[in-house]
Design goal:
elongated
């Protein structure tokens, strides 16, 4: 995995990743304030699954 691949992935999914990042930041902050560490763990798992799903659908352009 190169930096170019990661940048291409972000460019392809920038809206999804930005919205998900904002929502998850609020979710994590709320869970940590209320000391609900099981929800933090669930959030990390959900975040990993969604990014993994987006990554599996990403088809990087081929170099010409």
């Amino acid at each position: 995995m190169s930096v170019r691949t990661v940048v291409g992935f972000y460019r392809a999914h920038w809206l999804s990743l930005t919205l998900m990042g904002g929502i998850m930041a609020l979710y994590f902050a709320s869970a940590l304030v209320h000391e609900d560490y099981w929800h933090v763990l669930a959030g990390v798992l959900a975040l990993a699954l969604v990014v993994g799903w987006l990554w599996s659908r990403y088809d990087p352009p081929t170099a010409t």
